[in-house]
Every structure is written in C-alpha cells, then in structure tokens.
Design brief:
The chain is α/β, with parallel strands linked by helices. The chain contains twelve helices and 15 strands. Helix 6 links the parallel strand 5 and strand 6. Bound molecules: pyridoxal-5'-phosphate.
Length: 402
C-alpha cells in the first residue's frame, strides 16, 4: 500500500495525528469498560470520556453538556434536521442552500416527499449567498434553516452570524454544518446565533466513525436514536469510547495549533494558487477568495477534464480532488460549481487542492513543478480547440457520437 503520497485532499479526510492514536489505543486494549457501569473499572472510562468531551467543547467555546456524540458528520446533519422538525410539528418549511453537502441536501429532498416545502437558496458566481433572498424566504412557518459554515469544494465561508440574526427574528431553529470549519477557523458558540452545529472527527485529524452535534442549551431536541440514557437521552447506544477519546485529543491539538496553522496553510495555499495562475494560461479560481478557508483552493483549468488531471497527478503520487462526482459511470459536474453558474468550459476542469498542517513547502513546490506540463499535455491531446467556441463544438460532437 502506498503511503508516501503528497496528500492535498484534506477536505475529503485527514491523517490521524500520531498523538491522537497514542491516547486512543489503551481504550481498545486495557480500558474496555462501559462508561455507564457502576464499578470503578467502567467509571474510570466514564471519567476519560468526560475529559474528552471538555476538550471537544473547548474548540467550540461550548459547555460539555451541549455536546452529543454521533457516528459521523452525516449522522449529525440528519439528527439535527429531524430533531428540529420533530420539535416544531406545526411548521412545515425548511431553508437550506443549493451548495450543501449531500448529508443535508438529500435529507431535504426526502423531506419534500413527506410534505415539507424546502427553499434552496442560490449562490452567485463566487459561491456567495444573497441575504435578501434569505430574508424573503423566511416566514413564521419556517421550522429550520440549515446552512453550511464553509463549503467543502471551494472553501467559501458563509456569513453565519449575519444569517443567524435574521433566522432568530423568525423564531426558526438554526443548524450549521461546520464539518469543514471546525479546526480550520476560530469558532465561539458563546457569542453565536447558531442553535445546532455538526462536526466530524476524520476532517480534523481524528479517526473516522466519530462526530458530534453541538446543541445549544435550551434548544428543543428530539432524539433520532432511541434506547438507553447515553448522551443525556439525546443519542442512545454505548459510546464509541476509543474514538471519543481520540476526538478530544484531536480537538485539543487543532485548537493548540489553530493560529499557526491558519497562517502557514494560507501562505502555502496562496503561493500554490498564485504560481499556478501565473504559469498556466486559461485558469481561474473558483469561490469567494475574500471569504475562504485558509487551506482550500479550487482552480478551474479550462478546456480539459478534471478527471484526466487527477489521473496524471496520481502518477506523480499527488492526491487532489475534482469538483465532479462520478455517479454511475457518467461524469456529472459538481452541484456546487453548477450552482455558481460557472461556464461549461471551467466546470469540467476544476481541481480542489486542500492542505493541512502537515503540508510542506517541498510538496507545494512539487505540485507547482508538475502542473504546467500536465495541463499542457492534456490540452495538446484535446481534439478540441483551446477556446470557448472550439471546446463547445467538440463537446457537442462528442455527445452526438454517444
Ligand atoms: C465530510 C462532510 C460531511 C460528512 O461527514 P462524514 O463524517 O464523512 O459523514 C458533511 N458535511 C460536510 C461539509 C463535509 O465536508
């Protein structure tokens, strides 16, 4: 198995920090007690879970009683949305955006078949929301507004607190999918308008299979998972102790390194982006460059296919991601980039590089070194002329021959 790659796909998942593994291991071996048990053996595990919960709460500026562990970010999103609706059965309207993660979008789509009406807010070419559109959509019938903190594909950050102020005027519950924000930018729930917030362990150098939902004290919550009294009755099921311990440590480390990581990643990201833009013709940055995660750049290389770029990058051991989701063998451009109304020529050739605090200068240098030739090679191979008209004509011909 390959493990010496240049890993620039940190918005998909991250490496588990070695310190995180170290603190987690004893809970897979010696300390296997059930934290709810009455005996000392289980009780000491319960104590460790409490410490981990405090560590996680600290990165959000939350109280430990406001944290509910989940199995992943997807569960957090599902649980928050359903809880908000169950708590207000008389309200039948939901507001979200066109650029959410499938863990929110597909839940909303299903709810539409169950009698709910859903408003999917649009975004502009920079991927930014129009707050007037939000304001016009809010009514007394709106049960829930669920909007992501930062976009996983472009890194665009939404003005969450400005949104929250408007949501509060209408008495709706405000849920935020912050899976891409936690550990990447400072957050403080004490001064926030957010009612519920989702995070996921494997996006912040913790393990897969653990996440959490922050639920502000006083917010009405109806559990999704019913059973025992774990998580103060808000999520039944014996706790995933090793992963909870790991997530606590991961959060502690993220908070400890946050300021330094932001500065470092932003500098590396900007150098990568600016150099690629300067050395490769016909490429553009996708997203709101003024409101963006420090670790993410999404670049559209016109007239070529993102998948082809990824394959060649892969040959150099470089891991990145394209905006496209390869569904059932057909190459569908990303719903996020489509919602931004990007031109067809850019939609297909967009690549996301997402850095982390382990990313090195040398790794960025290597990408800067190989990218121009990759793009040049693909453009030379392309049967289509390297201009908008020629490219479109080529696409039409290709479609006609299917
Ligand atoms: C990764 C991700 C999720 C899903 O989290 P999982 O833990 O993989 O289920 C949800 N929302 C966003 C924005 C993400 O990036």
């Amino acid at each position: 198995m390959q493990n010496n790659c240049i890993y620039l796909d940190n918005n998909a998942t991250t490496k588990v920090d070695s310190e995180v593994i170290e603190v987690m291991l004893p809970y897979l071996t010696d300390y296997y007690g059930n934290p709810s048990s009455m005996h000392t053996f289980g009780g000491q595990v319960g104590k460790a879970v409490r410490t981990a919960r405090e560590q996680l709460a600290a990165i959000l500026g939350a109280d430990e009683s406001e944290i509910v562990y989940t199995s992943c970010g997807t569960e957090g999103d599902n649980a928050a949305i359903r809880a908000a609706l169950l708590a207000q059965p008389e309200k039948r309207h939901i507001i979200t955006t066109q650029v959410e993660h499938p863990a929110v979008l597909n839940v909303c789509k299903q709810l539409e078949t169950q009698g709910y009406s859903v408003t999917y807010l649009s975004v502009n070419h920079q991927g930014q929301l129009d707050l007037d559109e939000l304001e016009a959509s809010l009514t007394g019938n709106t049960a829930l507004v669920t909007i992501m903190y930062a976009n996983n594909e472009t890194g665009t950050i939404f003005p969450i607190e400005q949104i929250g102020l408007r949501v509060k005027e209408y008495g709706a519950i405000f849920h935020v999918d912050a899976v891409q924000a936690v550990g990447k930018i400072p957050l403080n729930m004490k001064t926030s308008t957010v009612d519920m917030l989702t995070l996921s362990g494997h996006k912040l150098h913790g393990p897969k299979g653990i996440g959490a939902l922050y639920i502000r004290r006083g917010v009405r919550f109806r559990p999704f998972m019913i059973g025992g009294h774990q998580e103060r009755g808000r999520r039944a099921g014996t706790e995933n102790v090793p992963a909870i311990i790991a997530l606590g440590k991961a959060a502690e480390l993220e908070l400890l390194h946050l300021e330094e990581a932001i500065a470092r990643e932003r500098k590396l990201r900007d150098r990568l982006e600016q150099t690629l833009l300067a050395t490769i013709p016909n490429c553009v940055v996708n997203g709101d460059v003024t409101q963006r995660l420090p670790n993410t750049t999404n670049i559209g290389f016109k007239y070529i296919e993102g998948e082809a770029i990824l394959l060649l990058l892969n040959k150099y051991g470089i891991c990145a991601s394209s905006g496209s989701a390869c569904t059932s063998g057909s190459l569908e451009p990303s719903h996020v980039l489509r919602a931004m109304g990007l031109p067809y020529t850019t939609l297909h050739g967009s690549i996301r590089f997402s850095l982390c605090r382990y990313t090195t200068e040398a790794e960025i240098d290597r990408v800067i070194e190989v990218m121009p030739s990759i793009v040049e090679r693909l453009r030379a191979l392309s049967p289509f002329k390297n201009d908008d008209a020629g490219w479109l004509q080529g696409q039409e011909q290709a479609l006609a021959h299917r």
